[in-house]
Amino acid sequence: MTRLLLIGPPGAGKGTQAERLALACEVPAISTGDIFRYNVTNKTELGLEVKSFIDAGAYVPDTLTNAIVADRLKEADAAGGFLLDGYPRTTDQVAELDRLLIAEGTQLDVVVLITADTDEVVARLLKRAVEQGRADDTADVIRHRLDVYAEQTAPLIDVYSARGLVVTIDGLGAVEEVTERILAALTERGLCASAATT
């Protein structure tokens, strides 16, 4: 049973690693970004509400995000563990996640911080924008998102470091190499035991 949080700047490879780690650790990957994009694409009520925030490179308000994550964590497949990608992003969201987990008698097991060079991140996201036609990934918006990350999300690292939960992983290199680095770090902590044979 592993309760894992992936954190790092936009474009650091969290989404790619989340999919691989979820499979290896046999837990669901819960990505707020994917949930938002699904709703925007399908023009749901939620999608219409968050589209303006996403297009501007801003974060969706905590009240909306917290409610979505709370509902998702109550689903049956998350009872045995989960991987969070993109949440929490702020210290207020950390407090809300703590409240949700305490209510269930659980807590996070580890926080994986994926680091990446800023220029590399911008290049990755510009390439992804072309490949996937993502309107939210323009150069200006990317730079803004990185600024917002530094201002709002980086302090989370201090919070979780104080709890002894953070492991830092270099996000540069082949996807497989980064996955191996993360799984090795998890194994050292006695987590994601099933991954040892994958």
UniProtKB/TrEMBL annotation:
MF GO annotations: AMP kinase activity; ATP binding
CDD domains named among the record's database cross-references: ADK
Predominant subcellular localization, coarse grouping: cytoplasm
Any one GO BP annotation for this protein: AMP salvage
Residues the record lists as binding AMP: 32, 37, 58-60, 86-89, 93, 134, 145
Single GO cellular component term: cytoplasm
InterPro entries in alphabetical order: Adenylat/UMP-CMP_kin, Adenylat_kinase_CS, P-loop_NTPase
Subcellular location: Cytoplasm
UniProt function note: Catalyzes the reversible transfer of the terminal phosphate group between ATP and AMP. Plays an important role in cellular energy homeostasis and in adenine nucleotide metabolism.
Record's subunit section: Monomer.
NCBIfam families: PRK00279.1-3, PRK14527.1, PRK14528.1, PRK14531.1, PRK14532.1
Protein name: Adenylate kinase
